[in-house]
Amino acid sequence: MKTISILIFTSIFDKKVKYNTNLPGTFNKSITVTSNAENSNVMLRVKGNVKPKAE
Amino acid sequence: MKTEDLKGIVKARRNNRELGYKNVEFLLGEIEELPLPDNTADVIISNCVLNLVPDKSRAFAEIFRVLKPGKHFSISDVVIKGNLPENLHKDAEMYVGCVAGALEKEAYLNVVHNSGLVNVTVQKEKQIAIPDEVLLNYFGQEELEDYKKSGSGIFSITVYAEKKD
């Protein structure tokens, strides 16, 4: 059986989304990621809820 | 090496182990100094990675070194035609999308040619459309209209080349 060696380069990205933790309540953030994929612009929505600090 | 890189390679190797693949190996290293001997690879493929490498000449020299004679690479990357505003080119968010760090198309192809690879062919090319609301972070309204008319832009290209036998 013939085997071939394929070398694939890859990289890892991370993207940080900041929100104000001093403001209790829901938050909505969105970021647009551009790439060379078929759908070249993808909007990512991050939703969450900041709970009041425990006294 | 960054902590994120180490975490990534640990996760990849764990997944590989759990899935039981015996013909996949993950290596962590700099593309400008590949941790592989000469004439190792039959094919090299990559998508949207090399434009992030600071020293592209060195990276392509390494590709040339590890490719077996008579074998080829096929690489998709982001390149630029014309001029982009400096701040867009360097913006971290654009870096995530492979735009920052991208070379002008002809300069990129010259780097490939100069590495010693032959039969360099652009197999595919398509423009990456960035929404106006993103571009308006870098341009005024009038500048944006000028930019659109200028023919400048961000493109994805797929490049094929061979190492002579």
List keywords for this structure.
heterodimer; A: 55 residues; mainly beta; two-stranded antiparallel ribbon; elongated; B: 165 residues; alpha+beta; Rossmann fold; 2 domains; four-stranded mixed sheet; 7 helices; 4 strands; globular
**Physical arrangement of strands within the biggest beta sheet of chain A:** 2-3
Helical residues, percent of chain B: 25-40%
* CATH-assigned fold name of the largest domain in chain B: Rossmann fold
Fourth CATH level, the homologous superfamily of the largest domain in chain B:
Vaccinia Virus protein VP39
N→C terminal distance of chain A: 69 Å
Give helix and strand order of chain A, one letter per element, not per position: EEE
Beta content of chain A: 35-45%
Mean pLDDT of chain B: 87
Number of helices of chain A: 0
Q: How many domain regions of chain B?
A: 2
Compute the average pLDDT of chain A: 80
Which strand order do you get reading across the main beta sheet of chain B? Answer: 1-2-4-3
Largest sheet geometry of chain B: 4 strands, mixed
Biggest sheet layout of chain A: 2 strands, antiparallel
Over all CA atoms, what is the radius of gyration of chain A? 20 Å
Order of helices and strands of chain B: HEHEHHHEHHE
Spatial separation of the terminal alpha carbons of chain B: 35 Å
Helix/strand-derived class of chain B?
Answer: alpha+beta
Shape label of chain B? globular
Based on CA inertia axes, which overall geometry of chain A fits? Answer: elongated
